[in-house]
Amino acid sequence: MMTELPAFESFCHQYSSEQACAEALFHARWPDGFRCPTCRHSHYYLTRTRRMPLYECRSCRVQTSVIAGTIMEGSSTPLTRWFQALFLIASPSGISSSKLSKIIQVTYKTAWLIARKIRHVMQRADQYDPLSGLVRVNHMKYGYSYYQDAQQPLLIGGAFTASAQNIPSTDLIGSMSSTKTEESRPQLNNRIPTQA
Ligand SMILES: [Zn+2]
After folding, report:
1. Engineering a disulfide at 47: which of 13, 37, 54, 114 sits with its beta carbon 3.0 to 4.6 angstroms away?
2. Ligand 1 centroid from CA 49, angstroms
3. Where do the structural domains in the chain lie, given as residue ranges?
4. φ, ψ dihedrals at 11, nearest 5°
């Protein structure tokens, strides 16, 4: 974790406000500009009276937000803390829920829930997007180190592709897509490409 601190600080600086996070989510969600999730119309009315900007389709009037349908929907935790959690959980060394709660300053229960949701979507994404190219896998453990049976084995794998190397470490989407966390053993052989 120590070696990742400068990158984490720089990430926090980049996403230090709700607006910065919402803008990042907007561009991740609609890289070619707004598209209504119902009718694909590209024009909208913007409502800023709520905590989260609301986008209302000018054609079918359906309202949506940048977090609609994501693990952040319905959460009262600020986006800045969600982003920090995403960075820390997706980092190669991972993080425990109790440490996460201290760093992002939420209760242990909230940190545990956030971590659980993030790990769940990362695992789901891994199922449909297996690592390819040059893959490096490290064996690690997570969990409370004082009790051996509380520790869970982990394989942390990363794909080092030309495009992934060009993504700055502070880029949220880049760090999410180039780092994978997965339970130990079952798929190790499938995740290391054979030499052609
Ligand atoms: Zn629409």
Report:
1. 54
2. 21
3. 2-33+70-191
4. -65, -45
Report CA-CA distances (Å) from 59 to 15, 40, 48, 62: 32, 9, 19, 8
Average pLDDT over residues 158-179: 47
Spatial contact of 62 and 56, defined as CB atoms under 8 Å apart: yes
**Ligand 1 centre distance from Cα of residue 193 (Å):** 43
Distance 39 CA to ligand 1 centre (A): 4
Q: How far is the CA of 26 from the centre of ligand 1 (A)?
A: 17
Residues with CB under 5 A from ligand 1 (ion): 36, 38-39, 41, 57, 59-60, 62
Say if residue 120's pLDDT is above 80: yes
Residue partners of 44: CB distance under 8 A and separation at least 6: 34, 36, 55, 56, 57, 58
Strands (E), 5-162: 44-47, 54-57, 63-64, 135-142, 152-159
